[in-house]
Amino acid sequence: MEDEDIEKAVMAYLKKKGFKQTALALKEEQSKSSSSNVSHTDPDVSKQLLSFSESENDPARYQDGYSKLRSWTYGSLDLYKHELLRVLYPVFIHCFMDLVAKGHTQEARTFFSSYREDHEMMHLRDLQKLEGVLSPSHLEEMEFAHSLRQSKVKIKLCQYSHELLVQYLQKPQSSKMFGIVNEHITFEVSPGQPSSISDETEVVTLIGISQDTAKQINEKEIHWGLLEDSLEEHLEKAGGMMPESEKGEGETKEGDLEECKKRSTDGGKQGPSAKKLKKDKVVSATGKSARAETNAVSVAPRVKAELTLPVVPIEVEHSILEDLRNRVQLGSMALPSVCFYTFINTHNGLNCSSISHDGSLVAGGFSDSSLKVWDMAKIGQQGGAATMQRGNGTTPTEQLVGTDDGKRSYTLFQGHAGPVYSATFSPLGDFILSSSSDSTIRLWSTKLNANLVCYKGHNYPVWDVQFSPVGHYFASSSHDRTARIWSMDRIQPLRIMAGHLSDVDCVQWHANCNYIATGSSDKTVRLWDVQSGECVRIFIGHRSMILSLAMSPDGRYMASGDEDGTIMMWDLSSGRCVTPLTGHTSCVWALDFSGEGSLLASGSADCTVKLWDVTASTKIPRAEENKAGSTNRLRSLKTLPTKSTSVYSLRFSRRNLLFASGVLSKGAR
Q: How far is CA 259 from each of CA 262, 361, 426, rounded to the nearest angstrom?
């Protein structure tokens, strides 16, 4: 019986270390000598092997080994400590899962709770998922845990940090940790000094696939330019992309402000607007010098459309061209005017809001399964309530939406069987899509005020839905961990994008309609080819779930905002983060680029709208990012605080007027 135990222990050890050929040879040797009942094992050797096998399965070795590794890491020199600390999280996760896999459930829970706080700041959502793992069967059933056990994490270390770690792990008391590191971590060793602490893209992210696979995906060719024969190209050929004079710019601003003025319901607002208008004329002159840099759209490469695009009516094309011709050129010296629509008395029932491309319609999705649409022109005629909020430099106008003076000031759309989580207007504003927890997407007509189609395909709640830049096609994302592409004339999806390890929380179209981007709770952003349905980019670097996405007008850059308030600017060609933009203190729920791509607007649950200088952010050399002094202060142009209104949505009009909407917090008046 003792020999059988020894054979099992040796076989288990060989399998664990990956010595497959040796294990097969031992098995053949055992089968040949099975007829013999004579023991060939020395008693002393037998005792040592059995004691080694027992110690290997001793749960206390995990606690003791990790505790010593943690103490050694935190006691290392400051120059190398931040690199060595990257090893702790994957070791912690695999120690916990190994304990569960071996049936030591109680010891696993104690170990997990003892060191959980070390990793909560960066990996809270992962820990919340693994907290529910209570048995070996859970490890197999939970795809997230199963994928972690099957893949390796790549960690970047400088050469000296790597040598220090290997020297420590080779000590006898570290054999258990050595085994885990050897089995689940690969190191990318670089010569020279350690990487900077501020290099946030280097942090460990467990994405469930090998880092080599992610690197291969990011090497795929993509075409980020604009569509051939687009309206911008027509305008460029006609020589009308730029306003002819300062007067033209001033008139454009005046036209946009007049539109905003008509939608307002406060009769006493003309004074501040007149002052703002005079200031805009001065600002337009200062923005003249930035025109060469802000006209990035006109120099973007042209690509062919992979989708069959809808035909734009002549009168609509003329209207859009007129807006583009009169677009105000924005920059660091010429900030946009802002019009803010505030929902009041929603009683925590508002889940989402959306604004049409010209700001004339505002939609809200509610927990009672209703979708409501307000026409700003009608509200202005009714003379409802409005307030003004002054900002330094720009004056966002807060339009109070939802007041009830006996007559309903909105159009009510009913049809969903659960809370509405997303809504989006078509580019022309004649249709609106809504998605719900009932796993359906509904298409509504704003002209007929009726439901036209109900799209069924997702199996779980649909978190987001977005029209393509040309209309007709739309994309959705869901709790079922997929994104889907649809067309208005088909009730079944055209493509299904699967690959995320958790909920797909947001989706956004590329400017040329050949790609869509998806943001997920697995803390990654993926770019998908619409024609093939393949993932062509994986963007790794966020520390929490991604809540918002935006594409630059020229299609070269993408911005993503997460739950922690961090915004990351990505270069689609390389798949690398150009720069992180920090400043928000809570969830970033909305992002949008200005018409020419020189500014990025972000809206957050911290009740602020921030304006960022995209031109400066994307041109700062990487070597300068790690120098003393934060360059983020240079990139953030302005912060526009609301009274107590979380920002749900943002939209730059074609003329570059910024619209925003949100809900007033309870008790704030």
A: 5, 13, 20
| Per-residue confidence (pLDDT) for residue 393, from 0 to 100 | 39
* Integer Cα distance of 570 and 477 in angstroms: 21
Instruction: Give 291-309 pLDDT, tens digit per residue.
Output: 444 455 556 677 777 778 8
Q: How far is CA 395 from the centre of its chain?
A: 30
How confident is residue 650, by pLDDT bands cut at 50, 70 and 90? very high
Strand-pairing partners, residue 354, are: 363
* N- to C-terminal Cα separation, the chain: 80
Q: Diameter of the chain by CA atoms?
A: 105
Distance CA 347, CA 20 (A): 63
- Closest Cα partner for 663 from 344, 404, 338? 344
With tokens 């319609």, the residue in question is 361
The residues facing 473 across adjacent strands are 487
Integer Cα distance of 603 and 586 in angstroms: 10
Q: Is 237's pLDDT higher than 60?
A: no
CA separation for the pair 120, 92 (Å, rounded): 12
Cβ-contact 486, 473 below 8 angstroms = yes
- The Cα 527–Cα 540 span in angstroms is 12
Which burial class, exposed, middle or buried, applies to 531 when counting CB atoms under 10 A from its CB (0-12, 13-18, 19+)?
Answer: middle
Listed in sequence order, the DSSP H helices in 287-402 are 291-294, 314-325, 376-382
DSSP code per residue over 227-256: ETT-HHHHHHHTT-SS-SSHHHHHHHHHHH
- Name the DSSP letter for residue 151: S
> What is the rounded distance in angstroms from the CA atom of residue 436 to the CA atom of residue 367?
9
Distance, CA of 371 to CA of 414 (rounded, Å): 6
Give pTM, 2 decimals.
0.68
Nearest to 532 by CA among 496, 573, 486, 488: 496
Q: Residue 596 gets which letter from DSSP?
A: T
Dist. CA 355–CA 429, nearest whole Å: 9
pLDDT score of 256 = 47
Residue among 530, 466, 453, 472 at smallest CA distance from 496: 530
- Where on the phi/psi map is residue 249: left (φ > 0), alpha (ψ -120 to 50), or beta? alpha
Exposed (0-12), middle (13-18) or buried (19+): which is 106, by Cβ within 10 Å? exposed
In angstroms, the CA 213 to CA 540 distance is: 13
Query: 543 near 561, Cβ under 8 Å?
Result: no
Rounded Cα–Cα distance for residues 129 and 503 (Å): 12
Beta carbons within 8 Å of 147's beta carbon, 6+ residues apart: 208, 209, 501
Question: CB burial class (10 A; 0-12, 13-18, 19+) of residue 201?
Answer: middle
Q: What percent of the chain is modeled with pLDDT above 90? A: 34
Cβ proximity of 576 and 622 under 8 Å:
no
What backbone phi and psi angles, to 5 degrees, belong to 564?
A: -85, -10
Strand extents, DSSP E, 311-448: 338-343, 350-355, 361-366, 370-375, 387-388, 397-401, 411-414, 420-425, 431-436, 440-445
Is residue 147 a contact partner of residue 208, using CB atoms and an 8 Å limit?
A: yes
Residue with tokens 């930035």, as numbered in its chain: 290
| Token representation of residue 25 | 């040879």
Whether the pLDDT of residue 114 is over 80: the answer is yes
CA dist 483 and 527 (Å) reads: 11
Sheet arrangement for strand 420-425: 420-425, 431-436, 440-445, 450-456
d(CA 255, CA 338): 14
127 in Cβ contact with 133 (< 8 Å): no
Contact 398, 389 (CB under 8 A): yes
